[in-house]
Protein 1
Amino acid sequence: MRKKIVAGNWKMNKNLDEAKELIKGLKKEVKKLKLKDDTRVIIAPSFINLRAAVNRTKKSKIEVAAQNVHQEKRGAFTGEVSVDMLESVGVKTAILGHSERRTYFGETDELLAEKVNTVLGKGLEAIFCFGELLEDRKSNSHFKVVEDQIKKALFHLDKTSFTNVVLAYEPVWAIGTGETASPEQAQEMHAFIRNLFVKEYGEDVANSISILYGGSVKPNNAKEIFSKPDVDGGLIGGASLKVDDFTQIIKAI
Ligand code: PEP
């Protein structure tokens, strides 16, 4: 059945020494947890620290993801990183469509559809992020917004592609704000999302795709959020930067 996943998005934090230190601490704690095969732990350091992260997590349960990748395979795109480059340093997963990429770097659903194709085309996995703004929720259009984001970026894919897709519902109003969706709000949206997949692709795909919740998940609220039946884990920002906090969240899964 579907995997439980705790993924840490480090964003633009941790230089090389700090990244090594955090990985060292996490490795020690994760080893002690003796996690089962149905549970995955992923960290997403910045591009420049990916290679070190891959090398240092080789014999551990911790997997390494990129926070973004370019949609083109190669070429004159100064400052960008390709899927081939990720693969060549041993990275198998890329986060796509994080709200900070959408907001500060103008990433649209159409562009994200291209990125999804490039990532899956290379045989890598995508953690696809989406979620509504506060005004969408206030105007009660959050379901429609989420549905559009998913349809535009993912629903051109065939059934089999979804073995390499993880979904991350991240209400923008809850990211880095200390404000969390209530476990009931998370469950309501996750069930809605799963039902979109039932309608488009059938029960098999819907029941095998992991849907993570992201938005101010902390050690003190993780357990309750993760206890909801359609919440398969979390994408964690701030609380993934400290060994203790991230370990507590992994324990909660
Ligand atoms: C995120 O950036 O994906 C996130 C969920 O951040 P935070 O946990 O800090 O809200």
Note: The chain has eleven helices and eight strands.
Protein 2
Amino acid sequence: MKQKIIQQTEKFVKDKLRNESSGHDWYHIYRVKNLSLNIAEKEGADHFVCVMAALLHDIADEKIAGTEEEGLQEVKNWLESISVEEPYITHILSIISTMSFKGGNGKEMESVEGKVVQDADRLDAIGAIGIGRTFAYSGAKGQLMYDPEIPVRETMTKEQYRNERSTAINHFYEKLLKLKHGMNTPYAKKLADDRHAFLENFLEQFFEEWEGRR
Ligand code: ADP
Ligand code: NI
């Protein structure tokens, strides 16, 4: 029964994200789902809730839905239409709404399942995949990969992100290198340390090559 619900939901999400180019393509969802399962195993979280929340976590994002409310309503309608039991619906919606609430003043995740899926989403922004996504995003926005004349801003508002020039390399300092400090679960912290070290090695080599020293 749960397996069928997961399969139907995968198809629903895949169809919705078919033409998505804002960095929230289906394979981001695919990775977050697998990573959530991996972390859930170690942290003793409910697999069904983690997989469902991972699959649906970006549907309520402003970039995909008109507004967050419309997105959450759509997720609710979907879960009801495939007869997911009420306590599961409430739990999944609560995770998704906390996740799509952006910015530093976001609420703490209440359940271990929420912590797991949030960790998986953040992990997908670092490591080799995170580097790839950053350069892809920057390229799509017409940014340079690096420009020594553009300063790094330690804290950036959403407005600044939209309106000011940045580079792929600046994004490492503005966001990626900070993500490991925000992990909720012990196992995700371990994975984040590993991915973080990979970012640092990448940057070190990048600047050496930039100056022609390596
Ligand atoms: P999410 O909603 O999953 O947190 P975002 O929409 O903020 O992700 O970003 C999608 C991907 O694009 C992430 O890998 C992120 O690091 C990257 N990204 C976001 N903003 C920028 C930017 N200004 N420059 C380069 N990469 C960015
Ligand atoms: Ni995401």
Note: The CA atoms of residues 2 and 97 lie 22 Å apart.
Protein 3
Amino acid sequence: MYEEFWRESGDAAELVIPGWQTMSYFSDVTNVCWFLEPELDQQVRRLHRTVGNAAVDGYHVIVGTGSTQLFMAALYALSPDAAGDPSASSRQRPTTRSGNQSCLLGRQCFCCDLQSYPAVTDFLRSGLFRWAGDASSFEGDNYIELVCSPNNPDGAIREAVLASEPGAGGKTVHDFAYYWPQYTPITEKADHDIMLFTVSKSTGHAGTRIGWALVKDREVAKKMTKFVELNTIGVSKDSQLRAAKVLGAVSDGYEAKVVGAPRLFDFGRRKMVERWSMLRAAAAASGVFSLPEETSGFCNFTKETAATNPAFAWLRCDGEDVDDCASFLRSHKILTRSGAHFGADPRYVRVSMLDRDDAFDIFVRRLSSLH
Ligand code: PMP
């Protein structure tokens, strides 16, 4: 969806990197995150100040190969075993930690993106933590709760459901991949301990593989940095510079001194409003689908009341003879992801709202023809 915007933005987000540049592992050895390009650090802070969606003063910026890597880094950093020498922690693991760490998900057992959080949590069979399912049914103090808001797949605004006693072991990670004005009203400047963001959803540059974490606590920031160091010895500088350029172009659009600069969030919101209204009309025309109720709120960024326009549609097949919505739609040449993948009823499917115009148009046309 965003290709059209970037195509029309001319050279605003263009970057040339000569052969001799970005060769070292290091970016700024005085920074906690020593592989973070200073330009990316500045542009991340500038964009959050422009949009007002997250606090940046007093926070450390940690860069990752997508926010996926930072999610893993956060689990590592918040697990008690990760406190020091990783070889020592693996020696202790079998006796002191087996099974009693947990990684949890926000309410209602909706996992994020192709059930990827449980998969990402468990694929290395870490002794530091394990996936424990839905946070609302968890009891205990030793947990890491993952809050995804707006939520993937249903776009709902979520808050943490577990409140740990002071001094207990409960920790929270906020995934704010979709907390941008094209998807939802910006109702507050979030200031949680660890907040994850990514260019994949904010500007559409998923292939650049750049995410960032805003981290309050210096020790946690150091451990997250250590994880990325052990995992990939840093993050592609070329990608960081490209992400910095792209984020800079977005902020330029909202600074009065850059006359006529293209405005990404205006474009994104216009597109999403249009697409959601097309989708709602198609669902109504067919009569056999339902969609989540539209909610709205006052957006502190646009200074207007705005509806939520989730990046995914959480579509329900209402027909009595359809109990597997994904198969039904597949037989009509519409590819979706079944609700079953998210721990939900297979009468639900998740549909991406961010495809190119031509694909989206075909999708709504096909959907409205089903009765
Ligand atoms: N968080 C959420 C909520 C997502 O939906 C996704 C990807 N779909 C990610 C994180 C992963 O982002 P990245 O491409 O930065 O790894």
Note: Residues 85-114 have pLDDT under 50 and may be disordered.
